[in-house]
Structures are given as C-alpha cells and as structure tokens.
C-alpha cells in the first residue's frame, strides 16, 4: 500500500467501520465483536506501518480541498503517528477486554459502534492539520463520550453523560471562537502555514479553555470523576486512550509544534496545571470510590503532562511525550483492573474491601505494576517520563511551581499505596472472589507487562521522541 | 416573476383543483395525486440543482437565480415529506382531499413568493399563503386548532398593514416595487429617508411574519396547536418563506451595513441576538415537545436575522444555507413529534422516556436532527452557523459573534434535557406500549436525515453552488 493509502486507512477505516457495526450486529454477536476488534487492530497496524516512513523525517499529506480555506488535510508526521499508535493500541486492548466484560449488558451494539467511532475521530484529530477539522472531530468525540458515559440508562447516568458533553462542548465552543480569531487574523487555519506565527493572547486562552475542558483540568475537572458511572471499559477508554489525551495532544500540536504565544501564557498554564495536580491528588487521597479515585489521579497526572509541554524546553517536552505513553498504558491497566474488581466484588467503597491478593494474584500483581509506573518508581516506564519532565522544568522553571509538582508527586505515591493496601492487603472483609475471565486477565497482564518493559526498553521511545522534538518543536530551548 | 419557473407554481395548483373533483369519494386517490405531484416536482428541481454537470461547469449552466431554485427545492422537499408522512398519519375520518389540496395550494403560493420579482407580487402570494395556512392550522377541528388559527390570523394581521403601508410609501417615492429597480436605486445612491421609512415598514411586517423575538407569541400557539404534520410544514417552510425569505431578500437589496445604515443593521442584529438567546433559554423550561421545538425555531431564526443585519455576502450565504438546513432539521423534529403523539397520545415530555428501544428509528433520527440544530459537526447546521459566525467576526460585530457561538451551548443543553426525558432514561408505562411508525412514515424522516448528513459532508458542493449562483446574480 502506498503511504497516503495507509494514512487514509488509519482515519477512514474506523470512522466508516463504526457506521457498519449496527448492520453487522444483525449477523451475529460474535461477528460484531470480532469486527470491532479487527477495526481497532487494523487502525493500529496502519499507523504502525506509517512509522518507518515518518521516522526518516518525511511527512505524508492527503488533501481534500474545501472552500474558505477549510481544507481537509491529513498529515502524518512523527507527533501524529506517535499519538495515533498509543491511542489505537490501548483502544484495541480495551476492545479485546470488552468481549469478556461487556458480554451481559444491553445496548452492546451502540457500545461497540461508539467505541470504534471514538477511535476513528481520535485518529481524525491526530492526523488533521487544519484546525477546523480538528474541531469537527473534537465534537464527534464529545458526542461519542456522551453516549458512552450514559451507557447505563439510569437517571443519574444520563445526568452525568449530559454533564460530560455540556462541559466539553462549552470548552470546544470557546476554542472555536479562538480559531475564528486566528482565522480572521491570519486568513488560514492550516497549521503547516501557521507554523512559527505568533497568535494573540486572547485566542490562545480561548483555545486553552477547550483543551482544559477536554483534558479535565481545573477549572473544568469535575466531569471526569462523574463520568465514572460508565462501565469500566469506557472509563479506561476515556482516561487512557482517547478523550483526555486529546487535550494534551492538541496542546502539543498547537502550542508545542505550531504557533507561539507570549511567555505569560505558558506561565499561566503551569500555574493552572500545578493547582490541578495538587488539588486532585488531595481529592484522591480521601476518596473511597475506586473509580473516582483513579479519575482524580488522572486529573493530577495530566497536570504533569502540561508541566512538561509548557516548560518550553526539549527535555521537558520529550518527558511529556514519554509521560503520555506510559500514563496511557498504566492508567488503562488500572481501570481495566477496577473493572474486574467491580464485576467480581460488589462494593465500590474501597474501605469495605481487602485481602484480595490471595485470591486474585494476577490482578494484584498487574495492579501494583501499573501503580508503580504511575508513581514513577524506577525501573518502570513512568519513572522516565516524570524524571524528564522535572529535569526539564527545573532548567528554567519557577521554584514554587516545581515545589507544587513535587508535592503532588509525593501525594501520588501515598494515594496509590493506600488504594493498594486497602483493596489487596489486610483482612478479607467479604466472601473472597475469584479471578476474572481469561480475556480480561490477559488484557490487564499485558498492559502491566508493557509498563514494565517500557522501563527496560525506554531507549526506543526516547530516541523517537527526541528526534520528534528536535524536528517539530518550535522555540524549545 | 421568473417565467421559466412558473410550472412549479401552476402544476400543484392544478393538482389541488383536480383532487377536489376526482377524489371526493375515493380518498386514496387524493394521497396518490398529492404525493406524485410533489415527488415529480422534487425530482425535477433536484435534477436542476444536483446535476453532476453543474459542478464541472462551476454552475455556469444555471441561468436562474440560485436562491430561488434552492428555495423551491426546499419547499418541495419539505412538502413532499409532510405529505408522505400525513398519508400514514391521517386517520380515516379526516378529509384527505381537503388536506392534500391545501398543502398543494400552499406549495403553489410559496413558489409564487420565491419566484416573485417585485414586492407587490410577493405580497399577494404571502397573503394567499396566509389563507391556506390558516385553514391548515385549523384542520384538526378541535378547540386548540381553532384557537391557534385565530391567533395566527390576528397576530400576523398587523404585519399585512405594515407591509401595505410600506409599499404605498415606496410607490410614492420611487414609483417602483421591482427588486431590480430598487437595486438600481441603491446602486445609484438615491436613497432618501422617505424610501427608507417605506423599507423599514416592510421589513417590520416581515419580521412579524417570521416570528422573531418581540413578535414571537403567535409562533408558539400556532406550532403547538396546529395539526401535528401541519406544525412541521409551518415550522419547516411556511414561516420561513412568508417571513424570513423576504427579510433576506431586503437585506440583499439594501445592504444595510455597506450603505452605512448602521441603525437598521444594529437593530436587526440586536433582534436576531435577542431571539437566539430568548428562544434557547425559554426552550429549556418547556414540558411540551412541540412547544419546545417552537422556541427552538425562534432561536434558530435569530441566526438568520443576525446575518441579515450584517448583510455581507458571506453572511447572506450563511443565512440562506442556515434557512435550508433549518427546514431540514426542524421538519425532522416536528415529524418525529407527530410520531410520538400518535404512538403515545401525548406531547408532554414528562410522560415519555426510554423510547430508544420501542422507537429506535425515531430516536436516532431525532438525535441527528438535534445535533445539526446544535451545530455539532460534520452535520450541515455546523457549517451554516460557522459561516454566519465567521462573517460576523470579520464584519466587526464581534459581540454578536460571541453570542452566536455561546448560544450553541444553550441549544445543546435544552436538547440534552429533552433527550433525557424522551428517548433515553427510564421507560415509562406509556413508552412501553409505544410502537415504531410504519416504513411509509419513517421514509420522509430518513430522507431528510440523509439531506442533513449529506449537505454537511458535501459542504464544498453546497458552498460552491451558493457562491456561484447567488453572488453572481444578486450580490
């Protein structure tokens, strides 16, 4: 296949495939599940096959002209392929896990269609270089998350789903206003033309509002813990593979590799990120619902990613990208484990659990590996991400901000250890449950193993992201 | 009047008369004649607009005014959908031949309005349309229908006086009603304040007919009280053609913003913005499905009026495109409202819930239509709103641009509330017994949904059509 063809496959295959799922489900349930999984794996493969080409420094472009300069332009470069690989890989694992996990719920067809559509629009965001198309796919993901969070149809679920879409769309509309400002000022929304341009502070802050709403950072963070009412696979998808990563990706794409803004912007981002990291880590420390706890942890960790992206030097930028990778894998793992726990042991309250290490050893070991990666304990993958982010931030950072993040990092260790202690150690407080189904265990064990391997093989992603930031980064020191 | 398009006006009129004679005792014949007439017209106009050759020749083969053609397409599309839907909806005891005759007469009157070349002809057809729609609203001869019809008549009656007065002044000062003649006067820069006072009176009349914010009271009762398929027809085309079309036309001729008529421009934009916000906020509090949609209509018309106030070429294109999109999505929503009414015997949203299982097609088509209303890409509503927003921003009306964007979130909010009550959420007793509509009634809804999706995805085609045919001839 030609490279352009691969690029088109990576975007259009999941988008169009998702629309076919309702029809395929008429054949049989197994066919539908396999079809969805195949779509996920093929999307991953297409991006993987693009990697050798972009590694040579090539960019692959596919363009459909649209009036008024709203061209539909897909571009594969190192950053987009990197993000696409992470998202499609974690999504594929989640689809595999879903086969076991979702088997006895209603509305499964809608679920699979929405997950694949979500993946497709994520690919759209990642590969689009025109901001207006980024916005188009951005809104499609909002619709998908609305349906997925409201998967169970109780009153509360639907309220939370509405909250999710309203918060993220509110952010997106602010972002659209920012885009309109750029458009009327520069006459284009094509990032390859905008590269190196300086945009106004107001436009930058409006776009930031969209990014923060999607990435669930202060002051838009409340929807993410609430979205925990969805099935665990959905939350894993939202936290690890697609939704919140959209925001950090957009930040890296727009402010990291395309346009520049006055330095006061980056300073503000750092303060917001720092506050977000500390406050949500504090919330995680006292939370007793396992899914809400991990959700707060995500909000906190996203702060670290913003720290890396906004610090404005190469080391921190590389660190942030590594962080995205390791966090996706580990957080995906944690949520899938929470899914197993939810299915096997009923109370959501972690204080009413305990002693699961004996009966669920594989789950417990996977959990501790993922948790250690997020805590950034060497030699797991997460360590390198957090280390590089701090190393870069210290070079030209405000000591107070660094101190804030250091404190948040300590809190991370505390709340994850508390979670592990309460759930897996201590006395069993209920009838000891058995391990989850094989597909579910394979998925979580795989994610845990990858977290471990990422530590050992950190050379490869480091090499890739270093080349990426040297080639694409703008105004990084 | 454009002679070459006369057939679109005369054929439905002929069928309307024919039905009265032929199908007095054979009600099915009325269905067949009505639908076939409209379907044939729809095919004909589609061939004119969507011929692939057009795109190759960049629309230079279309001699007629592109705005008129698009409006005729819209009228036939909505009328055919409503007529086909009603074939399944009408109960046995209703007078089918009267219903179809009235639909055809209003189609004919609307085609008259959009092909008119001067204000006088336009006014005549607007009044003819008002009579036909008066009868249509009262078709369901219960108290509510009659009340709605009388309100519609009385509250839009002042509009006619304003329009007549305005035309009289125009006749005295310029001795012409002709659009082309007026355009020459504008181009020559002979605008005096008496001419403008005439224009303002006409504009005021048509604003009342479009049902924007301070003049909206008749819209609510008319849409809610009318016979359900008629509500769809009213919201989809009748009010648009009888009111909004003329406002756009006036904005095209007297480019308020360019001509430094800032006060009119400001006032129109203010009315538009007020409509957007008022309609959207009021819609959030509604319990009745049709009344909520009526408020939503007021809000969406606001976008068109705001663009007319600015009246730059891009804004006008956005307004025309939004009018077309609004016809598509609002008709879907009102027809689905009629389906809900038929299967649940109520339009009260509190009594609905969880209909996604019993009525999946109705539910998902409503989701698509509401997404388009709220401007979620890549559906068509997004593009037309984007055009308007970009035009407002570039025209310097930044505050209005922000209002137009910000209202998107309120629109989404009231539809989310509606979805929670109606389609998703807990299944109520009434919803358990609900049944999906037969294919005949779903078909028009599906066609319109396809139009919503396709005109979003084929935005380059739509945009080129608008810019090539409309800017060339008028702007």
The helix tally of chain A amounts to 20
**N/C terminus separation of chain A:** 38 Å
Strand content of chain A: under 5%
Number of domains of chain B: 1
Number of domains of chain A: 2
Separate helix tally of chain B: 21
Q: What profile does the largest beta sheet of chain B have? A: none
The chain-level structural class of chain B is mainly alpha
H and E order of chain A: HHEEHHHHHHHHHHHHHHHHHH
| Structural class computed from helices and strand pairing of chain A | mainly alpha
Shape of chain A: globular
Low-confidence stretches of chain A: none
Task: Describe the structure using short key phrases.
heterodimer, A: 477 residues, mainly alpha, 2 domains, two-stranded antiparallel ribbon, 2 strands, globular, B: mainly alpha, 21 helices, 80% helix
Q: What does it look like?
A:
The complex is a heterodimer of chains A (477) and B (475). Chain A is mainly alpha-helical. Chain A folds into two domains: 1-261, no CATH class; 262-477, no CATH class. Helices cover 75% and strands 2% of the residues of chain A. Chain A has 20 helices and two strands. In chain A, a hairpin with a 7-residue loop joins strand 1 and strand 2 (72-76). In chain A, helix 13 packs antiparallel against helix 14 and helix 16 (361-375) packs parallel to helix 19 (438-456). The model of chain A has no long low-confidence stretch (mean pLDDT 85). Chain B has one domain (3-473). Chain B has 21 helices and no strands. Chain B has helices at residues 6-22, 27-50, 52-56, 66-89, 96-115, 119-137, 143-174, 179-188, 193-210, 217-225, 228-253, 262-284, 289-310, 313-344, 355-358, 360-373, 380-394, 398-422, 429-433, 439-457, 459-473. Chain B starts with 5 loop residues before the first helix and ends with a helix. The chains are: A mainly alpha (477), B mainly alpha (475). At the A-B interface, helix 5 and helix 6 of A face helix 17, helix 18 and helix 21 of B.
